Amino acid sequence: MTKPSHDAPSEGAQTADTPEDKADLASAARKSASKGVWMGTAVGIGSAAIVAALLYANKKRG
């Protein structure tokens, strides 16, 4: 399978050829991944709190 030419980088496009650039890209990827983990954790905790509050409210009425 070949890559379509319209997706190919333009002439003179910069790539991460130096080790410093690759390290910068790797650290940026780690930072963005950890932000996603924290966001997922916050959403999970918030969802659990909502469910617990609803269960408590239903138990208190009955």
The CA-CA distance between the termini, in Å, is 63 Å
Strand and helix order:
H
Q: Helix/strand-derived class?
A: mainly alpha
Shape: elongated
Uncertain runs: none
The Rg value, from CA coordinates, equals 23 Å
User: Helical percent range?
Assistant: 55-70%
**Content of β-strand:** under 5%
Number of strands: 0
Tally of helical runs:
1
The mean pLDDT is: 75
Oligomer: single chain
The largest sheet is: none
Keywords: Membrane, Transmembrane, Transmembrane helix
Transmembrane segments: 37-57
Region (Disordered): 1-35
Structure description:
There is one protein chain. This protein has about 60 residues and is an all-alpha fold. The protein contains one helix and no strands. It has one helix at about 20-60. Keywords: Membrane, Transmembrane, Transmembrane helix.
Briefly summarize what is shown.
The chain is an all-alpha fold. Helix content is 69%, strand content 0%.
What does the secondary structure layout of this molecule look like, with pairings?
Layout: H1 19-61
Region (Disordered): 1-35
Keywords: Membrane, Transmembrane, Transmembrane helix
Transmembrane segments: 37-57
Salient structural properties:
transmembrane helix, transmembrane, 69% helix, 0% strand, 62 residues, mainly alpha, membrane
